[in-house]
Amino acid sequence: MARQDPPPPSALDDPAYRTGVVELLGLLALGEISACERLVADARMAPDLRAKVEVAAMAAAEFHHFEQLRDRLVELGEDPFAAMDPFESIFAAFHAKTRPSDFLEGLVKAYVGDGLASDFYREVAAYLDGETREIVVETMSGTGHSDFVVDQVRSAIEADHRIAGRLALWGRRLMGEALSQAQTVVAERDALSAVVVGGADGPGLDLAAIGRMFTRITEAHTERMETLGLSA
Amino acid sequence: MARQDPPPPSALDDPAYRTGVVELLGLLALGEISACERLVADARMAPDLRAKVEVAAMAAAEFHHFEQLRDRLVELGEDPFAAMDPFESIFAAFHAKTRPSDFLEGLVKAYVGDGLASDFYREVAAYLDGETREIVVETMSGTGHSDFVVDQVRSAIEADHRIAGRLALWGRRLMGEALSQAQTVVAERDALSAVVVGGADGPGLDLAAIGRMFTRITEAHTERMETLGLSA
Lengths: 232, 232
Prior knowledge:
CATH topology of chain A: Ferritin
Number of domains of chain A: 1
Shape of chain A: globular
Oligomer: homodimer
Largest interface: A-B, 24 and 24 residues
Structural class of chain A: mainly alpha
CATH superfamily of chain A: Ferritin, core subunit, four-helix bundle
CATH class of chain A: Mainly Alpha
Radius of gyration of chain A: 19 Å
Strand content of chain A: under 5%
Largest sheet of chain A: none
Number of helices of chain A: 10
Low-confidence stretches of chain A: none
Helix content of chain A: over 70%
């Protein structure tokens, strides 16, 4: 029998890149499962069964994203729970500091979080190896239920204009907390941060590139808040 | 152009059968969404992320069942929420009377409930028109996560034998409450009850047939409890 050719050289053979990708997948997987969990907890505040079903559909989409990311970690020979573990305190802190006080705040949080995740996935995708990129692009599609959130928020504002000010403040707080937790991740996770801005082969972490990424994500957040009828 | 043949005579043209099927689909749909909701609420008691993910996977399967049942109601030209509405108090009463006091009780409840639902679906399927049967058979597959529950319950009992007695009592209480709510449905819903035992064309409700169905389901429950290592 002829000897098999060795596998083609892969970006994943680079240990720094591999570490960064496993951290990234762990971060994204934990983000999806913890978003799913919080969303479902907030659904208890839903005014009726119809709204509960909408929220459950969003949560089910997030769970499906989680499954895809987890399966990619398993494919890479990693324990998905070990990969997620380092990020538990990050998401726990984020959710503890952003507990919605009513159903509308929960919806805005889901909408904003879903949007931030999609933006982040889009930013990161460019620098990933083909297979990892495919997973990330598939899970970046969002939960596809934003129309429901936009309708709910806009009609609540129509019924009572004071709600707009409260929800705008809430949106700013969500974004502030998200950025603050993201900075913590950047500070603690060199390999991950390098993958995120495509600098794994460079001489050090490109903080300016990370700063520009955060700026682009913040701009997209501002547009999303306007779609909801809120000033960012 | 030749005139089209009229659609073939369908069981759904019979108003009594149609009423029963819509009630049945409403009952099953509400059962799935309320099981999904309770399961997710109980997941807060999960000891670790791995267990939470298992429970989330069960909840996602139930949500998918719900979606299939809801879509069938929409296909039939019905408002799914109107079809579910009459059963809200039934499931609310069941869940209020069977609140798990810890994660294990939650798992046993999910396992028992999932099993009862599958048994009931199987009983009913025989008497349904082809298309409705197909949906019911698809959703009757269970959540496919019983191995996790069996492992958790059996190892908890191994670690502390006293748990077996408490969980056996809990299983009896779950079954008792389920039967009690089922009797209420039978008493209040003639068209549904007729469909369930295939007697829609008979001269009255066949209570003996319903009794035999409950007996078969109770026997299957006993076997399931034994699989968990519990006496029924």
